[in-house]
Write a structure and sequence with these properties.
Strand order of the largest sheet: 10-15-5-6-7-14-13-12-11
Radius of gyration: 20 Å
Largest sheet: 9 strands, mixed
Strand content: over 45%
Amino acid sequence: MLPLTYGASTPGTHTFRVVVTVGGTRYYSPTVTLTRTRLDPRCYTSGVVVCASKNDRKVYYVDRGRIVRTLDARFGGRAYDVNGRERMYSTAEGTFYVTRKVRNEVSYTYDNTPMPFSVYFYGGQAFHYSYGFARDGWVGDWGSHGCVNLRDWAGAEWLFNHTKVGTKVVVYR
């Protein structure tokens, strides 16, 4: 095993390939790509924290400073209000704590929209599975009404099952 130190602490994607010369013949290893994520400093704690990066469009489940699970996320953006008009919504940024969890939530405010695996952290804002996000992905500046949409059903269920009320949440750019 060769120690890998170049780029080990530099955020971003790094591609490596080992070249060994034996008797004048060069042998190349397969290409290895490593991605290092820059977490907000508030995500490095002695316990569990759910970190949501708006810039990365990801949610990270972090345990003692180590990323355990990464999920694609869609944040507040352009969406229709209750009167059918287009509006811009935003997801709150800062440090919060999980206040409640509802496995089979429904948004009665927004046309009875299902919100499975809802993990609330700020008023009516929650992490939850989104059928629309799963179907459409990221579409321009269209987003949620402020919630953090997750497009992976199994990942949203995992987050719901592994996050307790009182867990720290950090939402940042």
